[in-house]
Amino acid sequence: MPVFHTKTIESILEPVAQQISHLVIMHEEGEVDGKAIPDLTVPVAAVQAAVSNLVRVGKETVQTTEDQLMKRDMPPAFIKVENSSSKLVQASQMLKADPYSVPARDYLIDGSRGILSGTSDLLLTFDEAEVRKIIRVCKGILEYLTVAEVVETMEDLITYTKNLGPGMTKMSKMIEERQQELTHQEHRQMLVNSMNTVKELLPVLISAIKIFVTTKSSRGGGTEEAERNRRFTFEKMSAEINEIIRVLQLTTWDEDAWA
Amino acid sequence: PGREMVRQARILAQATSDLVNAIKMDAEG
Predict the structure, then answer these.
(1) Which of A10, A33, A43, A206, CA to CA, is 20 to 30 A from B14?
(2) What is the ipTM of this complex?
(3) Is the CB of A185 inside 8 Å of chain B's CB atoms?
């Protein structure tokens, strides 16, 4: 079971998480006790500079986004990485005075863990905002699908098809890119299956609307049946898009909690 | 800015990894 739910986050955090985990084990087993830690000024300064750059770019991202949840959730992550960076700087200064300092070792572990945790919070917050972008497109399609109910002429149908096409293409592209990003195989498959169903149902819906329009204009029988058929296809498509929206919001942790 | 933020996060993770390595290498050595 993957710990990180996207490949990007996994590729960034997995290696450093393993390193820190190993360091913690060494610390707990007393392997670092009684040993002098050398001058860490250079690697700590590199972390400090990287934190400063990340927070600067992060703040720019928060300023430019219209996503209110990201504006709210991102700043605590900045504080977490900045505080952790300060701990590392303090540890480095303490070790300069005493390479055997025990509190300095604790600060190093706390600081490293804090950087990992803060970076994880930041990346997850950003990823959630990216998911919300995809969901907005999906909801736009859901909304436009309901317009099918007011299509009564062939002209309307042409306009409807023309308007629906680009949105569908955009949603399909976004879902394809997202499923490739996910580390959880089941979630990937669920997105692919639902998107394929939506794509298969699109011409069926257009055809159902066409039959409804033709039946209605000929003033013969079968209008009710055509309407039922149109509604059935519309409801099936809506259900699949709602399923896509649900799966997009799942993370590996949801699955773990459920298990 | 979003992509740049992800790039900077990657740089920070690498710098943290290097730091942890430096601490560990000494302990192992």
Answers:
(1) A33
(2) 0.93
(3) no
